[in-house]
């Protein structure tokens, strides 16, 4: 991709980059900084975008890499492991929520996704929220596609358990309900 093409494409991707960064960082200031750093890095290194790779996936990959480095640096600076804190999570209102019950459910879902272990949460954000394919998410995170599928399955099970969604039991072979 040519430098000019990337420069023209990035503004159209900003809403999705912002949304991912906000969910990843759980802080508006950190999200703004993360989006800016990812865009600058992409514009400085357009030659690293491999042919056949989605620019959006590539930018998510850059963003995730920057964020992981930042989290590690913060842990070192703090001298202890950083914990995900629900209190720091900024809730965005759902414009489609028509009543308080829907709003409360929306907030519970955001909280539940935010409470997932980081590897599962990031895969859930990329696939379920951002709509990336398993392959695109695997490229963005630099992990095998099977790992994406496994993390997503575990995330879905965790969320299902949190909201008391039961999985259908398999009947023994040859037995009909």
From TrEMBL:
PROSITE patterns: SIGMA70_ECF (PS01063). Keywords: DNA-binding, Sigma factor, Transcription, Transcription regulation. This is RNA polymerase sigma factor. Residues 12-75 form the RNA polymerase sigma-70 region domain. The keyword Nuclease does not apply. It comes from Silvimonas amylolytica. Residues 107-158 form the RNA polymerase sigma factor 70 region 4 type domain. CDD domains: Sigma70_r4. Belongs to the sigma-70 factor family. ECF subfamily.
């Amino acid at each position: 991709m040519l430098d000019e093409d990337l420069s023209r494409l990035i503004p159209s991707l900003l809403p999705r980059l912002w949304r991912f960064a906000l969910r990843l960082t759980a802080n508006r200031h950190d999200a703004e900084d993360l989006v800016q750093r990812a865009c600058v890095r992409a514009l400085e290194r357009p030659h690293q975008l491999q042919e056949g790779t989605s620019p959006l996936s590539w930018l998510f990959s850059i963003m995730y890499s920057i964020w992981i480095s930042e989290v590690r640096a913060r842990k070192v600076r703090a001298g202890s492991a950083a914990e995900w804190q629900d209190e720091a999570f900024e809730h965005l209102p759902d414009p489609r929520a028509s009543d308080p019950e829907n709003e409360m459910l929306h907030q519970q879902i955001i909280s539940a996704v935010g409470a997932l272990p980081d590897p599962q949460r990031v895969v859930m954000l990329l696939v379920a929220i951002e709509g990336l394919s398993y392959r695109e998410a695997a490229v963005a995170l630099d992990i095998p596609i099977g790992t994406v599928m496994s993390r997503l399955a575990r995330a879905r099970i965790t969320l299902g358990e949190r909201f008391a969604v039961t999985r259908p039991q398999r009947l023994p072979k040859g037995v009909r309900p």
